[in-house]
Amino acid sequence: MNQSPTSAHKVVTTQWRLVALQMCSQPDAKQNLQAIRTQLQALAQKPAGLPQLVVLPEGALCFDGATDANLELQEPLGLGPLQQQLAALATEFDTYLLVGTLPTTTSDPQRFAASSLLFTPAGKLIADYQKIHLFDAAVADSTGRYLESAKTQAGNKVTVADLGELKLGLAICYDMRFPGLFQAQRKAGMNVLALPSAFTTVTGEAHWHTLLRARAIENQCFVIAPAQTGTHANGRQTYGHSLIIDPWGVVVADAGTAVGAISVDIDLQQVFSLRQRMPLAEHNRFLSELL
């Protein structure tokens, strides 16, 4: 279990603004960074004192470029110009910024890690997660077969970032099909789950809303799931429908298929109250006595 350390970045409030940016990212990182800045500039002014968490989709800085595009873009964790620019955006817009994925270097020169990175409004990197479950699957779309493991090295740690009252679980896209990951996060106190994604249109139409609502319901947590949308440089099509879901499983914001942002002001008391009234974690015998 990886958790961010106790420090001044923790916020003593149960009220937050959650923002999901929906993008149609292209291979060029500079172009994508400008698109992120444009969306951040367009966000509605938040009330003074209300902390804000902005989450970017999977592949926000580089999506479906040349075969080795992410290998060429990779940076050591915590170092490099892309991470410096993202940290600067978090500071400029006074927001916690979760980068859906950024390629970071691994011990294998032929594979990068798909890392989710959390920056504070002070520009400090306080938590990271490397995608555990890699998308190796055949899909009935124009791409046909996906082999993420060919260039990506799977991670092996569970991350819950401690922001004070908000305990943020980090996961990425295909991870959402494996509920054991979120049971581990829930046990560590997770109450908001971030799932940046780039679902295909085929799998999105079949499973996207169902899987995300299920993760919210069974873990009694808020879910924020920003997504890629539209047609990308190589013709790949992604589903869109970035979502914010409450702990009862209600979709409180859906971005549809257009590029743009959705935001919801939440109170974590909703999580605390629901877990008290229906203590699923205590009732789960498979976590206590049957295994």
Question: Which characteristics define this entry?
Answer:
291 residues, Nitrilase/N-carbamoyl-D-aminoacid amidohydrolase, 7-stranded mixed β-sheet, 6-stranded mixed β-sheet, 7 helices
Plain-language structure description:
With 291 residues, the protein is α/β, with parallel strands linked by helices. The protein has one domain: Carbon-nitrogen hydrolase (Nitrilase/N-carbamoyl-D-aminoacid amidohydrolase). It is built from seven helices and 17 strands. The strands form four sheets. A seven-stranded mixed sheet has the order 1-9-10-11-12-15-16, with helices on one face. α4 links the parallel β10 and β11. The chain is globular, with a radius of gyration of 18 Å. The chain starts with a strand and ends in an 8-residue tail after the last helix.
Write the layout of secondary structure elements.
Layout: E1 2-3, E2 15-22, H1 29-42, E3 52-55, H2 69-73, H3 81-92, E4 96-105, E5 112-119, E6 125-130, E7 136-138, E8 145-147, E9 159-162, E10 167-170, H4 179-187, E11 192-194, H5 201-219, E12 222-225, E13 229-231, E14 237-239, E15 243-245, E16 251-254, E17 260-267, H6 269-277, H7 280-283
Parallel strand pairs: 1-9, 2-3, 3-4, 10-11, 11-12
Antiparallel strand pairs: 2-17, 4-5, 5-6, 7-8, 9-10, 12-15, 13-14, 15-16
